[in-house]
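Example for tutorial group B:
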């Protein structure tokens, strides 16, 4: 979705989508997806509206501060996976978690860590994500 973009360009997409949404301006489909994720995270809104501060922020593990862009990006990734049922079976797992946990957003939150772990392992090992291992992590939730 954003593969060719740099960090600042990607972050600007979030800020611009939220600005347009807040101004009730027409949104492109991707902007609507971004605005929907932001709206579900009111704790990030004032920070995103700070503009340059949000663009320049660093999120290092030793800082102990979660990266809102990563968090929201993982939500978007899970939504895309569920919409396309890739890996196969994820839509059914998401539906079951949604029912058990009280909604799609709660299910996504449960699914974030297994997705992040799977992506981290793939990056560390310079390989494609291990879809069977990812699905198994989700089944254990």
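The residue assignment follows.
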């Amino acid at each position: 979705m954003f593969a060719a973009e740099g960090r600042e360009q990607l972050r600007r997409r979030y800020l611009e989508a939220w600005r347009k949404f807040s101004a009730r301006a027409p949104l492109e489909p991707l902007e609507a997806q971004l605005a929907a994720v932001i709206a579900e995270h009111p704790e990030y809104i004032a920070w995103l509206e700070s503009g340059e501060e949000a663009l320049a922020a660093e999120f290092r593990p030793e800082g102990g501060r979660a990266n809102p862009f990563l968090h929201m990006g993982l939500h978007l990734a899970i939504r895309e996976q569920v919409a396309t049922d890739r890996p196969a079976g994820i839509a059914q797992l998401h539906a079951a978690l949604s029912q058990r946990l009280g909604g799609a957003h709660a299910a996504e939150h449960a699914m974030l860590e297994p997705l992040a772990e799977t992506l981290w392992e793939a990056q560390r090992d310079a390989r494609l994500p291990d879809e069977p291992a990812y699905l198994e992590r989700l089944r254990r939730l």
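The longest helix spans residues 104-125. Compare this with the pattern of hydrophobic and polar residues in the output above.
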